[in-house]
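ok new one. same drill as before - structure tokens go in, u give me an amino acid for every spot. 364 of them this time. try not to just spam alanines like last time pls lmao
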């Protein structure tokens, strides 16, 4: 990745009639970055991608690619290429002709042939030139679609749910392959997905969208550790969300009283709003300790009863009912010793460290 901005979106908005599909989109992407737009169905991810591609014009704001204002520049004159969810490959053409399609009539045949061979090697389809498109597996079709976009040598590759048609195992394999390919080529990838794991495993940074707005743009690690509000916290991984009372003490440290856990000092979320008293806090399931006896070295503890045990192989998930908390507390324990320590109905203690409490601000 370089320090150069390859894409700059400034105050971009897209309206369909009176409906705002995207609002206040401010985004700067670095050259060579793998960026994902993540959010639930209908939040406006594809709209943002299509505006970068030039398939749709913004209603307001500006989009610069490689320093050039894209207003009025048609899709085929932009330094971008798109890989569609459906792959959009031609079933009656063989692999080589599918991949060569965009170059036909633009460069000499000998160069096309050389570039087809080069790009098929890149996506690990070397030697499959003559194979018919309808004789390919799902993973191979996906690679053909990638090759077809990459042969155009775009500065930015746009990917709309590129892996969603593949089964789970193949999808995970392609996630690594695409990430490796992106890093070795150094091309900027912008990917739309509603799959948080896909976004987290592949991306340098993720923009989380809700209701047409980019709510938080951060690295996967920061999004997981410090989601800015309830919506982001619930969308990325599993999160226990509890109401708490917040009191200011000194300049930066606050005391909370999350239901049942007693008083603690926590770090302030810089994005959280002003002087609210009632806030929400988030606690990741793996940050809770579960013990038969009261854990000695935890500043905050509560008692509860195991209501559900789920075995996931690499870890074990417990749901624990705690007096005074409406929802069950989710606890995740790594399965180091291959034993399930607690069963439904067992009385347990939960322990919590102050640093594991995330301030999610007001319930908005
Ligand atoms: P998905 O994951 O389901 O594809 P998305 O986050 O990509 O969803 P968009 O396709 O960007 O969402 O759509 C955002 C909103 O804009 C949706 O409510 C959609 O119905 C609406 N929308 C999209 N295209 C148009 C259009 N051409 N005319 C009117 N409304 C549209």
């Amino acid at each position: 990745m370089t320090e150069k901005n390859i894409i700059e979106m400034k105050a971009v908005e897209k309206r369909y009639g009176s409906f705002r599909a995207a609002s206040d989109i401010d985004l700067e992407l670095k050259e060579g970055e793998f960026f994902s737009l993540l959010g639930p169905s209908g939040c406006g991810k594809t709209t943002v991608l299509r505006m970068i591609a030039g398939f749709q014009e913004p209603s307001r704001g500006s989009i610069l690619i490689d320093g050039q204002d894209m207003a009025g520049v048609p899709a085929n004159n932009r330094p971008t290429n798109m890989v569609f969810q459906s792959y959009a490959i031609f079933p009656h053409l063989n692999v080589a002709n599918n991949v060569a399609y965009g170059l036909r009539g633009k460069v000499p045949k000998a160069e096309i042939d050389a570039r087809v061979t080069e790009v098929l090697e890149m996506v690990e389809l070397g030697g499959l030139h003559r194979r018919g498109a309808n004789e390919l597996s799902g993973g191979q079709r996906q690679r053909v679609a990638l090759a077809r976009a990459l042969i155009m040598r775009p500065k930015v590759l746009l990917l709309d749910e590129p892996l969603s048609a593949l089964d789970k195992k193949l999808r995970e394999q392609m996630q690594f392959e695409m990430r490796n390919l992106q890093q070795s080529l150094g091309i900027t990838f912008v990917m739309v997905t509603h799959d948080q794991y896909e976004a987290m495993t592949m991306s340098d940074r993720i923009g989380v969208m809700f209701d047409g707005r980019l709510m938080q743009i951060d690295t996967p690690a920061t999004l997981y550790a410090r989601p800015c509000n309830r919506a982001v916290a619930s969308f990325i991984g599993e999160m226990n969300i509890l109401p708490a009372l917040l009191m200011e003490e000194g300049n930066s440290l606050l005391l909370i009283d999350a239901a049942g856990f007693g008083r603690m000092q926590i770090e302030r979320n810089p994005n959280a709003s002003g002087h609210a008293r009632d806030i929400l806090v988030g606690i990741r399931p793996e940050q809770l300790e579960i013990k038969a006896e009261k854990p000695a070295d935890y500043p905050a503890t509560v008692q509860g009863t195991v209501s559900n045990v789920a075995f996931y192989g690499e870890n074990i998930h417990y749901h624990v009912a705690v007096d005074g908390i409406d929802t069950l507390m989710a606890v995740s324990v790594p399965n180091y010793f291959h034993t399930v320590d607690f069963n439904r109905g067992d009385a347990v203690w939960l322990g919590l460290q102050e640093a594991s409490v995330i301030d999610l601000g007001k319930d908005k």
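The chain has two domains: 5-226, 230-362. and btw Residues 16, 21, 39, 41-47, 194 surround adenosine-5'-triphosphate (CB under 6 Å).
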